[in-house]
Each structure stands twice: as C-alpha cells, then as structure tokens.
Amino acid sequence: IVTMPYYRAGVKLEQNSVYIKLESSVGIVVLWNRDDAVMVEVEPEYASRTCGLCGDYNGISHNEFIHNGRIISPVEFGNMHKVHRPNDDCEDPYEEDEQLLEATPDSCKEFLNSNKWSSCTILINPEPYIKACAQDMCYCSNNTNNACICSTLSEFSRQCSHAGGQPPNWRTPGFCGNVFCPHNMIYKESSSPCLDTCTNQDTSSLCEDHKMDGCFCPLGTVFDDVSMRGCIDQTECQCKHDRIYNPGELYRQETKECTCVGGKWACKDIQGPATCAVEEGSHITTFDGKTYTFHGGCFYTLARVEQKDDVSPKFTILAQLMPCAHQQYDTCLKSVKILLNNDRNNVRLPLF
C-alpha cells in the first residue's frame, strides 16, 4: 500500500477523481478507473513483442484471432491467455448464443449510430461495441434496465476521446449518470487530464496526454490546490511563501516587494538603504560602491544632507581620522560625531 502521488525507482503513481495512473520508465502507462476499465499504453519499441489479451501490437488488427493457421473465437483467444496459478480454480467463459444476441432490442445500435456520435464513429468502428452492448442487454437481469449497458457505452466514449474525437455529453441523471465529482467539479466525457490549478494555471495548455473522461473544473475556473476549496475563479487564488497569502497581500524581502495577484507573485524592485563604510581607518566604500584609500589627519564629513524645507530631515556625520599612535604610517578612526535636527541633537561615539 502506497500513498499517492508516489515516485520511486522509475515508477510514478498518481490519481485524480476517476483514474489511478501508473507511469513507468520502461515505457508503459496504465490507467484504471477503480472499477471495470483499464487502459494500457506502450511505447513503439514494443511493436510485435507483446502478447496477451491486448494482442501482439504488429499494426494489423484482422489477424489478431489467427492461431496456428486457424481462425479462433474471442473466447478461445481469451482462454489462451489464462494464467494458471496453483490455487486458482477458474471456469472458462462460454461461447455466446448468436441467435439470442440477435433477439435483443436494437437500442444499442440506434444509440451508437445516432448523429451525436458522428465524431466518434468516423474514428472508431462501433460494431464491436454494439455487439458488446447487445451482450450486456442479453444477460442483464432486466433487459429494459439501461444501467446494464453503461460500461460498454462508457468504454466507447473513452476510446473516442483517446482517438481524438469529441464524444457527446450523453449521460443524464436517469441514464448512466451516477458519477460523483468532489467539491464543485463537473463530469465531462472528454477534457485535458492536466488540471489547471492555482499554483499551475497553464497546465492544460502544455499537456501532451490524451484527453479523457473525469471530473473537471467548470470553464473559467481553476482548482484551488492551496487551501483545497474546489474550483474557484483565478482571481481568488492564494499564494504561498512560507505561509499562505490572500489576494492583495504582500511581503518584502531585501530589495523586492511582492503582491499576491491571482495566485501569482507580482514583484517589483524597491530601493533599499545604501551603505557607506570606513574600514581600518583609511579604506572607504562610498554609497555607490566605489572603494578608495585615504589617510587623513583631522575631522572629515562622512555624510551630510542639507535640509530642503522645515520638515525635511537633516543630518551630518563626521569622522575623526588620525595617524595611529603605534603605527605612524597607518590611519586610525578616533571618533564619530552625529549631528541631527539642525545640530540640536549631537551624538559622539568615542572609539578609544
């Protein structure tokens, strides 16, 4: 048992509201709807190398059921691939009664051949699904119960979407419509499996995966993956930076000021304080980063700002540079004098 999303040893396992998806570095993708449908994708390097119920992947569909020069039935083909495990006692499926199938209602054929499926029937042959639908109806306890054919119709819709078609929204509350979606998401027959979220708002436009059925956010909204509030307008998205920020809130960091706007940080440069320094009594760095050496012997103005008006600040900072007592060729910083408020407040920092 693992917790998803799961990443380890070349295996990625993740889930959405409908499917569990396994993707492996060996070149396979497996999608399972947790119920009655599984889809396996393999890379072209496996062409003509596979076997099993999924066939030999040789690009030719009409020879799938030929074995030792003989045409076999789907049931025979399926039984050939039964895995014999020591403790299993499995019965082989039986051949369908064709006459019984022909006696079933034509609702399957009428449904899948209707114009609303035209985008699908030009890409996928509906006949196998019509036959499967008839089988569902035939062996249903009540052949007027439309729920018996939901799995087959759902699979045809899935394959249509996978092939690039656009299946109709054929489900209704009374017909195969018992699909639950969390939060305020809605069920769609075909949409991008890459969900746009507050932290990744362009995921669907960059997605290379096949479209599929599932639960999606309504048009014009994104999924809130920050506070998990369901589908919201992008403008309501929060941002994260050590903590969660609501839209319009900001934080400052060194020379930047960032505001949360629709789940994204809008940052601008702000001017921070400038620094001037005197080191070892003679090595000076200006506010603009210029460095030079000056050996003084008096009081010097380090920095001064003249008052523009009655309310503007004014200050003067003086530094006393003198030859060092023990090293006459070196300069020492003897004291610093700070004059504030028109020289009414004086602060002297004696260093010795």
TrEMBL record:
CDD domains in the cross-refs: TIL
Which SUPFAM superfamilies does its entry note?
Serine protease inhibitors
Q: Which UniProt keywords apply?
A: Disulfide bond, Glycoprotein, Repeat, Secreted
Q: Where is the VWFD domain?
A: 1-91, 274-352
One Pfam family, short name please?
Answer: TIL
Q: Which Gene3D superfamilies match?
A: Laminin (2.10.25.10)
For this record, the Gene Ontology CC terms, alphabetical, are: extracellular matrix; extracellular space
Compartments, record wording: Secreted
Q: Extract the InterPro entries matched here.
A: Mucin_vWF_Thrombospondin_sf (IPR050780), Ser_inhib-like_sf (IPR036084), TIL_dom (IPR002919), VWF/SSPO/ZAN-like_Cys-rich_dom (IPR014853), VWF_dom (IPR001007), VWF_type-D (IPR001846)
Chief location: secreted
Domain of life of the organism in this record? Eukaryota
**Which PANTHER family does this entry report, sorted A to Z?**
EXTRACELLULAR MATRIX GLYCOPROTEIN RELATED, MUCIN-2
Protein name, per record = VWFD domain-containing protein
- The organism is Periophthalmus magnuspinnatus
